[in-house]
Predict the structure of YfhL family 4Fe-4S dicluster ferredoxin.
Amino acid sequence: MALMITDECINCDVCEPECPNNAIYQGDEIYEIDPNKCTECVGHFDEPQCQQVCPVDCIPHDPDRQESHDELMAKFVKLTQG
């Protein structure tokens, strides 16, 4: 499943550069994650890097975006080919 950033985000800017898929961007009020680009770092790292660096723990799994490890890997392949 893709990750999401909750309104507890303090706009500290540490998550955006850690995302290998460029899925994190500055939204109108807080950072946001493009679920079409989020692979939870599958294919790049063992754990989501944004969650590792977030100082306020505001990046949970998005309950509306259920994806298996295989689906996340397929998304990674699609994003990185070509």
